[in-house]
Specification:
It is built from three helices and no strands. The protein has 82 residues and is an all-alpha fold. It has one domain. Helix 1 runs antiparallel to helix 2 and helix 2 crosses helix 3. The longest helix has 33 residues. It is elongated, with a radius of gyration of 20 Å. Keywords: Membrane, Transmembrane, Transmembrane helix. This is CsbD family protein.
Length: 82
């Protein structure tokens, strides 16, 4: 929960830094702000997806086990080929 909040705070800080760089005509600050903003957005999306998967597996553990087994078989097949 707090990690998602931290991601939103970092996104806002990145947006502010990007705005600062744009208006002071400092491309390095603008780039650093954009990178921080997009990294925070990606982190938030990954955390949200992980929470959704955790919820789905907790409500239906048999399907989660079947999917995990299928992924394991695919990885085993791909890594076993030479």
């Amino acid at each position: 929960m707090f990690d998602k909040t931290a991601d939103k705070v970092n996104e806002a800080a990145g947006t502010a830094r990007e705005f600062y760089g744009k208006h002071t005509q400092r491309p390095d600050e603008e780039l650093k702000g954009a990178a921080r903003k997009y990294a925070s957005q990606a982190s938030y999306a990954v955390r949200d997806a992980a929470d959704n998967v955790r919820d789905q597996v907790s409500t239906n553990p048999v399907a989660g086990l079947a999917i995990a087994a299928a992924v394991g078989v695919v990885f085993g097949f791909l890594l076993g080929r030479r």
